[in-house]
Amino acid sequence: MMKDASDTSATLLAEQRPAAATEEFRTHVLAGLAGTPKKLSSRYFYDAEGDRLFQRIMAAEDYYVTRAEDEILREQTDEVLKALANGHKRFSLFELGAGDGAKTRHLLRRALEQGRDPLYRPIDISENVLEQLEARLKKELPALRYHAEQGEYFEAIKRGFTDPSEPKAVLFLGSNIGNLTHERAIALLKGVAEYLGPNDRFLVGFDRKKDPATIRRAYNDREGFTSAFNLNLLHRINTELGADFNLDKFIHTPEYDPSSGRALSYIVSTCDQVVHIPGAATAFHFKAWEALRTEISQKYDDAMIDDLAKHSGLRITEQFTDSKGYFTDVVFAPQRSRR
């Protein structure tokens, strides 16, 4: 899983959104709804309301992912920081999909305490999240060097990773890699590996295969935050693109396949209905119980992690796991120098 404002705030957010971003969103939505099967990318979950709901999900009792990785970075801070800094006092710490940066602050705070001088470079699709993160860090860690990048991972990598002035450590936490298809996961890892020198490091969080009941609860929490999070995507389409989705006629339905390790989230139409989006060439017909896929969340075992490394030009240097064995943070280095 990659992340209730009032209608007024959502409308203001839509009005402030750059025209290019709105057009990109429109293009994606129209293509996704016209496809067979219908699907939308989880990257578009994150408007202001989506950000707020994701924070609620991460704090929910049923959602173990955040707590498991937080335990690693809180209880093994020195070991993880040592692996990432790799002997450097001054280095750039990139984070793909930074969110609220809560787990990363364990590392940043400790790095400053140790007399290190990290430049924190968070990357996130949500400008709203980055603004909140910057405000918080200015209060909590005023000595921290900070430079944010708003955008999609691949775009930000091209913009920011070419700076050779400091050694790099890169974070990809929260099992966000599980939201990518196998091919795109390899492409992202390769994309990062291409810019890593022999002393740079790349930490990736992997949600591990485990009791299927535990995973199913995490994606269908009893408090209903995950359901609201998924359905908010339809609300965002209504608000920003002028669509007429009736949210009362859709339900959130997650699935988990323990053989493949794939958790999937769907928005399912409860009746035969038609949705209109201004400017679209045609209306979009939903059959009763037709599914619109919104998210893939891959769970991993050791063999799958090894395979990703092998096909991405990376080698594993360290691994850190929580006390329940639910989650693993893996530190990679390039198989050979790319410079």
Topology, please?
Layout: H1 7-16, H2 19-34, E1 38-39, H3 48-59, H4 64-75, H5 77-85, E2 90-96, H6 104-113, E3 117-124, H7 127-140, E4 145-146, E5 149-150, H8 153-160, E6 168-172, H9 182-193, E7 201-207, H10 212-218, H11 225-241, E8 250-257, E9 262-269, E10 273-275, E11 284-286, E12 291-298, H12 302-312, E13 314-321, E14 327-334
Parallel strand pairs: 1-12, 2-3, 2-6, 3-4, 3-5, 6-7
Antiparallel strand pairs: 7-14, 8-9, 9-12, 10-11, 13-14
Helix pairs in contact: 3-11, 5-6, 9-12
Q: Could you describe the largest sheet, including whether it forms a barrel?
A: 8 strands, mixed
Query: What's the CATH C level of the largest domain?
Result: Alpha Beta
How many structurally independent domains?
2
Which fold name is given in CATH as the topology of the largest domain? Rossmann fold
The CATH homologous superfamily of the largest domain is called: Vaccinia Virus protein VP39
Q: Low-confidence runs (pLDDT<50, min 5 residues)?
A: 2-16
Helix coverage percent:
40-55%
Count of runs of 4 or more consecutive helical residues:
12
Rg to the nearest angstrom? 20 Å
Please identify, by name, the CATH architecture of the largest domain.
3-Layer(aba) Sandwich
In terms of structural class, how would the helical and strand content be classed?
A: alpha/beta
What is the molecular shape? globular
What is the strand tally?
14
Round the mean pLDDT to the nearest integer and report it: 90
Order of helices and strands: HHEHHHEHEHEEHEHEHHEEEEEHEE
Q: Strand share of the residues?
A: 15-25%
The end-to-end distance, rounded to whole angstroms, is: 34 Å
